[in-house]
Every structure is written in C-alpha cells, then in structure tokens.
Design brief:
By secondary structure, the protein is of the alpha/beta class. 29% of the residues are buried. Belongs to the trimethylamine methyltransferase family.
Amino acid sequence: MQAYLRSQLRTIHGGYHQSSRSNTAACSSGFDYAIAYRSHYLIRSSTIHGGTFFEGDLFGCVFGDFPGNLAGVLTVHNAEVLSGIVISQLVRKGTPVVYGSAWTTFDMRQANVVIGAPETALMRIAGAQLARFYHIPSHTIGPDSDSHCLDEQNAWEKFLTLHSAFTSGVNLVVNAGMFATGLTVSFEQLVLDNEMAGIVYRLVEGIEISPQTIALGVIKRVGPKGNFLEEPHTLKYLRSSEHWEPKLSSRCVYEKWIEDGGKDV
C-alpha cells in the first residue's frame, strides 16, 4: 500500500521531487483505539513525503474509544489531532496540516454509530473553535444523516449538521450525497444536498449593511404609497445574489403546483 500510494503521487506530478513540492493530496487519519496509532497510520504518514498534507480525523466511538461526555470527547480528540500534527512534522517538516473532525456518537439502544445527532452538531462547532484557537484550517463532515432513505428524517438531520458546520466557520465540509450514516451515496441525495447548501451558504453570507445598501436615496424618492418595482435599484438587486434562487424547492401557488403534476422534491 505504501509503495502504491507514493507511486500514484509520482505519476500525477511527474516524479518524486515534483510531488514532494506539491501538496495536492490529503492524508486523513483516524484512530482505532483511544489515544493510540496503529501501523496503518505510519503507512499513511509515509505518503507525506510525496506531496500530501496531513489531516487528523476522529473516527472513534463515544462510550468506547472516547468518554461518554462531549467535553471528554473533545479532550481526547484534541490530543490525538495535535499528536498527529507533531508526527507529520517529524516525517516532513513544514507539511501543511488540517484540524480534522469526523464527529460521531453512539446509540446504545441500537448499538450503532450515528452522525446525524444534535451532539455531533455541537461537536462540529467545538471542533471549529479549537481549530481557530490553534490557527489551523479545519475540516468536518456534513451534511449527514442516519436515515436509510430520502425522507423527512434525512432532511432535518442533513440541515442540522450542514448548518452547524457552515455557521461554525469550518473551512472544508465533505459528505454531500451520503446518507445511512455515510454508508450509502446517491446522485439524488447529492442534488438535494446542493439545494440545502445553497440555503445555508446564503444564511452565512448575512446582510450587507452600508450607506449604499440601506437605500435611503431610493426610499426618499419613491416615498409614501410609492412602488419600488419600477426602480433601477430594484432591478439591480433582482439580478444579484441578494436573493437565493432555488433549483428544486417549490414556491408556486397550490393551483400551479397541481397543474405541474403535484410532485414532491
């Protein structure tokens, strides 16, 4: 595996020295035991020589590899990520690093790992805060769901995890198109996730406040009982990114929806 990974990087970059100077591949490492690395991590670490940036990730399980409370999980995870960063610098000094956090928890009744829980949303936020504390770029997973189909549970869990990841300021968010605790992927889910990402991205952009955007001039010009529809100012913002345009969501009246076939998403 070690030789294969390094040969792939050399093929992409046209030689070992070229690949060593380029950081276009990610080495994402998880932990099978609490605060312990296994041999597979050392194999992955060796690829850092071949133009890879290191990303410490959490794939452990609450109540097993981690304590049962969230603060305890953060403590163990933080130690694992920071120690992984140290190892990456010993392998190749100056290797770019990412503070990874693939947050999961555990449902004791079902004896199953879950990723769409509110606790994992909280951990996304906490992980982003830790990354900012250390001035390290951050990564997390989302939108995620434990539902096995494209139903309402899928929607609320996806939106919860995506919103928490985006609004926490995470730099890299992955897992679009995946559901069933990350064990299934579909093109339909990818399209739905793209719609949700557009909504959340617009929320993150917020409202721009400036002398131009508060529009006092046009408000005075139109005045009481006036109409803003014919104003150039209205046309300007109609064609801007001020208002998010859905690709899937229905916004028509009921009669039009029925006329178009009454289809759901």
